[in-house]
Amino acid sequence: MLRYIVRRVFESIPTLLLIVTIAFALLHLAPGGPFSADKAMLPEIQHGIEARYHLDEPLWRQYLRYLGDLAHGDLGPSFQYRNTSVNQIIANGFPIDLTVGLCAIALALLVGIPIGLNAAWRHHSWWDRVPMALAVAGISLPVFVIAPLLVLVFAVQLHWLPAGDWVRGSISHLLLPVLALALPYIAYIARIVRGSALEVLGTAYIRTARAKGLPAHRILLYHTLRPSLAAVVSFLGPTAAGIVTISIVVETVFGLPGIGRFFVTGALNRDYTLVLGITILYGALIIFFNLLADLCYAWIDPRVRLE
Amino acid sequence: MNSPWRQRLHGHLGLLIAGSVLMLIALASLIIPALSPYDYYTPQLELISRPPMLSGGHLLGTDPLGRDLLIRVLWGCRISLLIALLASLISVVVGVLWGAIAGYAGGYTDALMMRTVDVLYSVPFVPFVIVLTMLFGRQLWLMFIAIGAVSWLDIARIVRGEALSLKRREFIDAARVSGVHGARMIGRHIVPNLLGVVIIYATLTVPTVILFEAFMSFLGLGVRVPLASLGSLIADGASDMQAHPHLLLVPAAVLASIIYCFNFLGDGLRDLLDPRKHS
Amino acid sequence: MRLAGASGLVTGFLATLAACNQQAPTAAPSISVGTALAPIQSLARTLDDAPRSLDPQLTTDIPSQRVLDDLFEGLATLSIDGHAVPGAAVSWQQSPDGLTWVFHLRPEARWSNGAPLTAEDFVYSWRREVDPRTGAGYAQALSPILNALDIALGHKPPDTLGVAATDAHTLTVHLNAPTPYLLELLVQNYLYPVYRPAIERYGDDWVRPEHLVSNGAFALQEDLIGARITLRPNPYYWDASHVRLQSVVYFNMPDRAQAVLRFLAGDVQFTDSFAASQRPWLKRVLGDQVVNAPWLGIYMLGFNFRMPPFRDNPALRRALILAIDRASLTRYVKYDMYVPADTLMPPLVGYQPQHPAWAGLGAPAREALARRLYAEAGYSPKHPLRVDISTSVQGADERHYFEAVAAMWHSVLGAEVSVDESEYKVMSQNRELHRLPLFLDSWIGDFADPINFLQLFYADSSLNYGGYRNARFDALLDRAAQQPDNSERYRLLEQAEALLNEDGVYIPLYYYSTRHLVKPYIKGWHSNLMDRNLSRYMFVLEHQGR
To answer: Span B254-266, mean pLDDT?
Structure first.
């Protein structure tokens, strides 16, 4: 197991390198630069700044320079926010995304899995139809509709919860963003678990066990849960990274100073270093969660051998 | 306990209803605009953002430029359905093949293919779309490619996971022993057994695709005005939620219905196609 | 809250006492006795975007300007009505020829760490602005000052800038030409002083809360990048006794709908903008808390003079200008939030509006004239004009606006116009490279003087996106630059603007308005043309609820 993990970590380095290279190329392909179109900045001054940030050098040299800095852990200065480094922006924003994201994942699992199992167990009953109908609603309404609705109801009308902002250690500020983020995933997970559980419950093995009177919780927990988890794990693996970097919408609506928003505005403003930095973080997270997912697979399904 | 008879019928009934509703929506989006006196692009400034007036005139109200909302939404359906179906088709075909091959082949092939997926997954999609737009202009088919290119990755991952489990199963060993290999194995035995999962994910891809398109419209990279997709109509309506709720509710309701139907369709097809049910 | 009645009286009384005891005149409003102030004087405002930087010389965006206006103070500062009044400088004189100004700094002026503010600080800061190595965002702002432009272009060293510290509290400024609007220029954030020891010691990090030293009414307490900025009062500020707020927080809220929700919830009391489509509903729900006042800016479309179809075709340009019903557009698509514009300059005291001849025409006459000009230009329904309006992505409202403009051109002229929305950087770059025949253009005045608008069409200006060249126009501007005061100067500039209108150089659409939601218990602010409301004057009345 340990050897497998170490091998995967080593394998991830060329992957990350490739990610950086592709992202670098794409960013520079897009027209415009970080300092073009700045309100009437004199061309001479624009060239001056670009020289200071080495943007006038040939691309391959800029690329190598970036890699060199990267090796020292320096993600470079932000071009949009001229007195702030990318390291600072990520260090400030990422823990927030991480907190909200992990809570959302936990909530989605804690709520989604039981709902899905229950729906599968009571297939075709109201326990199945109603939650599944609600789940579809959760999937089909965009986050930029649900999130403001939550604020409207819980903060503005009922005054139960704050409308936004981030206060360290405050749970009430955490609730709405986590809920808004988790809702669609509760729906996805419930559906996936239900689908997978239905397949398991339909097998002859289980039907026999049920006929023999094996209690429900035993069947569900010991026999159905594990294979369903496999499906959940394969879904969550890649999406966890996305959840944790939070959707830009949730950040915007709740005024959370996370990095998702910086990613999009960075791309639109050609803040190369910021976008590259977040991309690397994103890539590392995906690799990490994929590794976690594969390890979970091995634990869940003993037939899968880690190669 | 439901008898297998009722289960079958229920599954088929859901399939029929869902399919019919989708057909209805698709037909409506094609026929009604041709019959209506209103078009989707001419503003009528005196009639902006009227709420639905059920007695004649604009059945579902008007949009912020006074255009009939029903017609706009139906056009939006056309565009969204087109984008969703084509992009999903691309995603599914590419994703299934990729994942099945990777999962079955194992070893270095698997590692290489899945690392490629990892890499592609981390590519920042916004600059990617901007570059595409720059190179090819704002075309509709560009949407398909951009969205399709991003959506096949999930399916590939999941299919590969399932293929990994599948290939250890007894019937695969049996098939191998009887001389089935490679492409035939994948085509005959792996893929059909994946179909249940694939269909669920395909139906889950459709809303994702529509919403991704909405996000692109939100960033201004979606369909060109005056065309609208359901996604862009919802994005516009969401910003006006308190003042004119119908601008959000109408396209959101239509979108929800379409997605509902795709899911019912998915469930029904799964019941039909799941090979284990036949045993 | 219940005790506030009595303590409010006392506070009001003390404030009046303090006002009576002041030495130097202050621009702060006095509060009458009996006004009940809230026990907690804290204000939460919003910004439309994260400030790019808190370095006064580097930034040109409005969010940065808002925060900088509270942190720093220039030689002149803004009064509550938006006029330039004594700030760090208590008085000044200009030489008879208008080329030399002498500023006398307040001897009691200090930085937020107690160090004295000297004339040398201004010399250092202004040199820094024009020094190409700084990479300032808008170095041309100092162009009236001797050698400023040469330095910015790299032709001369920074120490040749026409500014000198005659002694610790006297600053001498040498100009290229008489500049009647110099005081308005001095309130730009680019001319705020910065604290040299912090910059030399900490480099780019000098704007962090633990290092930043400011000379304005407030100091920086906290800066959560992208989230919020918290300010606390600067105890060394010369007018600190009149600063009532104990805390100012600027929240970053790019989502305008969200800003409205937070306002309704009472989390913020002074927002920075809201969408036009929300205006009728907001007016119904919030009444007077919805503020729209004139803002010195114009929204327009520009013609490209370097390529067909608009090059050498004044009839076509004028046809397009005439065929738009601006009143209907601002009424229906912008919900009366803005004012329709028929000429470049928004209303300005002392300046004669240059309404073009067609401004008085009724719609039928105007449209008939437009059709005639269109035909004269060589177009007809059989051979329609086909062109794109190139804009950037701004939001649903703006998109609808241009769709409506295109529809008007279609119904009046039969022109086939579509809206090409691109991502901002793409559109900007194409615009700078003169690739767009018809493009979005807008301008918010840096200071209240017509030259700031007219210079957009000066021959080689980097803001002249259309590439318009008219020697007569340039000559008028050059002559105006030599005038010592505004009497003749304004007449010349008016002629220049009239020339632009005759030539159909741009399509005016509407003038900007400020857009704020302000709680009724926030006082100490007035709407002004530059839309700059310094927190320094504001205070919170006692109030119930949110």
So the answer is: 78
**pLDDT surpassing 60 at residue B255:** yes
* Nearest of C297, C299, C316 to residue C437 by alpha carbon: C316
Confidence of residue B276 (pLDDT cuts 50, 70, 90): very low
> Is residue B66 over pLDDT 70?
yes
Are the beta carbons of C138 and C126 closer than 8 angstroms?
A: no
B206 CB contacts (<8 Å, ≥6 apart)? B84, B85, B88, B258, B259, B262
Instruction: Give the three-state DSSP class for C286.
Output: helix
Whether B195 contacts chain A with CB within 8 A: no
Angstrom distance (rounded) from CA C177 to CA C489 = 13
Please list the rounded mean pLDDT of every run of 10 residues in chain A (307 residues): 84 83 83 72 79 85 89 88 88 86 90 88 82 77 73 73 67 83 87 82 80 76 76 78 69 77 80 88 81 79 64
C-alpha span between B158 and A191 (Å, rounded): 15
Q: What is d(CA C292, CA C2) in angstroms, rounded to the nearest whole number?
A: 34
Boundaries of every domain in chain B: 4-39+62-277
CB neighbour list of residue A58: distance below 8 Å, 6 or more residues apart = none
Residue pair C131/C158 in contact (Cβ under 8 Å)? The answer is yes
Residue among A150, A169, A147, A166 nearest A158 (CA): A150
Cα C284 from Cα C271, distance rounded (Å): 18
Q: Distance between CA atoms of C176 and C144, rounded to whole angstroms? A: 6
Q: Which residues of B are less than 8 Å from C435 in CB distance?
A: none
Residue C153 at interface with chain B, using a CB cutoff of 8 Å: no
Residue C405 CA, chain-centre distance (Å), reads: 26
Separation of alpha carbons A296 and A304, rounded Å: 10
Using alpha carbons, list the distances in angstroms from residue C261 to A148, A251, A261, B96, C447.
8, 15, 20, 44, 33
What is the pLDDT, as a whole number, of residue B167? Answer: 77
Which of A:193-252 have CB within 8 Å of C? 252
A-contacting chains (≥3 CB pairs under 8 Å): B, C
Nearest-by-Cβ selection for A303 from B122, B165, B276: B165
**Dihedral pair phi/psi, residue C462, rounded to 5°:** -70, -10
Show the tokens assigned to C362. Answer: 């009724």
Contacts of C461 in chain A (CB under 8 A): 40
Radius of gyration of chain C (CA): 25
The reported pLDDT for the residue numbered C93 is 94
- With tokens 């792996």, the residue in question is B190
Would you state the pLDDT for residue B135? 61
* E-strand stretches of A28-183: none
Amino acid identity of residue B227, one-letter, is: L
Q: Do A27 and B276 touch (CB under 8 A)?
A: no
Chain segment A206-242, per-residue pLDDT in tens: 788 778 887 777 776 777 777 778 778 877 876 777 7
Q: What are the residue ranges in chain C where pLDDT is below 50?
A: 1-24
CB contact under 8 A, B242 and C392: no
Complete DSSP assignment for C10-27 = HHHHHHHHHHHH-SS---
Q: Does A68 touch chain C (CB under 8 A)?
A: no
ipTM rounded to 2 decimals: 0.78
**Tens digit of each residue's pLDDT (9 = 90 or more) over C263-310:** 988 889 999 888 888 898 899 999 999 999 999 999 999 999 999 899
CATH of segment(s) B4-39+62-277:
1.10.3720.10
pLDDT > 60? residue B9:
no
Residues 59..98 of B with a Cβ closer than 8 Å to A: which? none
CB-CB under 8 Å, C264 with A270: no
C431, closest residue in chain A (CA to CA): A37
User: Whole-model pTM above 0.90?
Assistant: no
Compute φ and ψ for C513, nearest 5 degrees: -130, 155
**Cα(C162)–Cα(C127) distance, integer angstroms:** 9
